[in-house]
Design goal:
Number of strands: 12
Largest sheet: 7 strands, antiparallel
Order of helices and strands: EEEEEHEHHEEEEHEEH
Distance between the termini: 40 Å
Oligomer: single chain
CATH superfamily: Electron Transport, Fmn-binding Protein, Chain A
Bound molecules: flavin mononucleotide
Helix content: 10-25%
Length: 193
């Protein structure tokens, strides 16, 4: 079945994160985000795409800081509350009953109960006609001890990090499961004789 080109997100599973920010007057904001990705392992930058009318984008522009919270699948209802279009003067931590978690390097708090927290500082904004690409540098990264293995990897079966697949009618919330094959990085760099 052929799909129109703008349906590309229907065929590409995306992560779901909650981005927490504060305005310059200190109002807390949290918003779900799917268009976000690390830029090339093992670098420390990430990029997110934002429509121009987003409090999140305004706050990042104003303060240069944000936290990428990785919610467990049990946080779907909070995610959906934060997806509502509240005016900028509304504290979305209060609306969604989120417990703030003090950050280590940046001013915006993280969200308690997340699987992991990436504290980020703005590196560059690439402004296009309808959207902006925000490049951030991860300046502090923590995984919740509850979901971390001894090596600091995420145990995805207990953490159940949230992800999504778009459809024509809405978002199907999903979560990654182990596909039964582990590939050490070294295996990928073996050169053919
Ligand atoms: C699962 C999910 C993923 C989303 N991903 C994005 C995204 O990648 N970029 C974007 O601009 N908006 C995205 N949105 C919409 C924003 O989260 C939503 O408009 C929110 O109200 C913005 O809040 P803010 O104005 O407080 O920043 C997404 C919404 C949901 C539910």
């Amino acid at each position: 079945m052929q799909l129109p080109p703008h349906k590309r997100e229907n065929v590409l599973p995306l992560p779901v994160v909650l981005i927490s920010t504060i305005s310059k007057s200190g109002i807390r904001n949290a918003a779900p985000w799917g268009n976000i990705t690390p830029i090339l392992r093992p670098l420390d930058e990430i990029v997110l795409a934002s429509w121009l009318r987003r409090d999140t984008l305004d706050n990042i522009r104003e303060t240069g800081e944000f936290v990428v919270n990785v919610p467990p699948a049990t946080m779907i209802e909070e995610v959906m509350i934060c997806a509502r279009n509240y005016p900028p003067e509304i504290d979305e931590f209060v609306e969604a009953n989120l417990t703030p978690r003090p950050s280590t390097v940046v001013a915006p708090p993280g969200i308690e109960g997340s699987v992991a927290w990436m504290e980020c500082q703005l590196v560059e904004e690439i402004l296009r006609e309808k959207y902006a690409l925000v490049i951030g540098k991860v300046v502090h990264l923590e995984v919740n001890d509850r979901y971390a293995t001894g090596k600091g990897d995420i145990d995805i079966e207990s953490a159940r990090p949230l992800s999504m697949v778009c459809s024509n009618d809405g978002i199907r919330y999903t979560r990654p499961v182990d596909a039964g094959r582990f590939a050490p990085y070294a295996e990928m760099f073996i050169r053919k004789p």
